[in-house]
Amino acid sequence: MLKDFLYLKEKNLKDVIELLLRAYVSSFSDSEKNLKRVSLGKSHQRLIILIDNYPGIRVVEILNILRITKQSLNRVLQELIKKDLIIQKQGEKDGREKQIYLSKKGVELSNSIFNSQKIRILNAFKKSSPDEVLYFKNVLKRIIE
Amino acid sequence: MLKDFLYLKEKNLKDVIELLLRAYVSSFSDSEKNLKRVSLGKSHQRLIILIDNYPGIRVVEILNILRITKQSLNRVLQELIKKDLIIQKQGEKDGREKQIYLSKKGVELSNSIFNSQKIRILNAFKKSSPDEVLYFKNVLKRIIE
DNA sequence: AATATAAGTCAATAAAACAGACTGATTTCT
DNA sequence: AGAAATCAGTCTGTTTTATTGACTTATATT
């Protein structure tokens, strides 16, 4: 049946790209005040979220996810280190690696950022069924690969 | 049953915020080459996508969606005008408004950007059921409000 | 021993966004 | 009809974020 394939149509794909943009922009604007309070910006926010979700994450991994240059990442990293928000440990297996963790202070900041951001997601989920949320997450993951 | 509410748990919300970030970053990196070819960047890409999806969109509407200042938007708009990618028309009802449209050249560029971006979404959707895609879109819309 | 990888650094530049103050045209309020 | 609000745009200067290119150091792989 033709109708079954409507979701693969160009218009639907274009809509989704726009929705992704808007969902990202709005979700990552909710915590602006929390960041300004400690003189940080969106680049730090992105980094903190990643380190929080992947404790011990390495620089190369961050570069691949955020698609920025190592020089750009390094600036942001140094600013977080200067503010005692993250800690670096030498890799155990591979001595070249450095694993990045949030400090106690970093965890606190991450939580305050998260508390601002979660409201929007929670409200959306409350209007959704468990299945909808599950499917939503599944598709998001497939977009990332 | 407790299990039914797991999807509202903090860890799940945090995961989703990170997934949104990654889905956005990867989706909007796929068209880098198309933009560089015409000396444009991500700020232009975001704008073009919006104008494509909402022909006749006004400046205030764009400001609300992209959450940037009008000075910042104006710079990007002027660059697109200089390259004959967009057209502005005086608002019919309200003479203060200016409605923004893609030019023929703008539509072509938008299509080339879209063709690069759609691959990722299409691949994800092909691995998903029509229901999953539908639910995905529904939740995305609820996040935006 | 040669090569590749992970991380970091220096310096210059470009891109994107912000802040504040201000103009002009049109519409809405009362 | 006059005051206030709204939409768009402008000027100037600054900050934030990211890029390019070249180069170093340490460790791991082949």
Distance separating the two termini of chain A: 28 Å
- Strand/helix succession of chain A: HHHHHEEHH
**Total number of strands of chain A:** 2
The averaged pLDDT of chain A comes out at 96
> Please, what is the oligomeric state?
homodimer
Q: Fraction of residues of chain A in helices?
A: 55-70%
Rg over alpha carbons of chain A? 18 Å
Strand order of the largest sheet of chain A: 1-2
Largest interface: A-B, 59 and 59 residues
Summarize, please.
With 145 residues, chain A is mainly alpha-helical. Chain A contains seven helices and two strands; from the N terminus they run H-H-H-H-H-E-E-H-H. The relative contact order of chain A is 0.11.
Keywords:
homodimer, 145 residues, mainly alpha, two-stranded antiparallel sheet, 7 helices
Describe this structure in words.
Two copies of one chain form a homodimer. The radius of gyration of chain A is 18 Å and the shape is globular. In chain A, strands 1-2 form a two-stranded antiparallel sheet. With 145 residues, the first copy, chain A, is mainly α. The two termini of chain A are 28 Å apart. The longest helix of chain A has 23 residues. In chain A, helix 3 packs across helix 6. The interface between A and B is large, with 59 and 59 residues. The structure holds a DNA duplex (30 and 30 nucleotides).
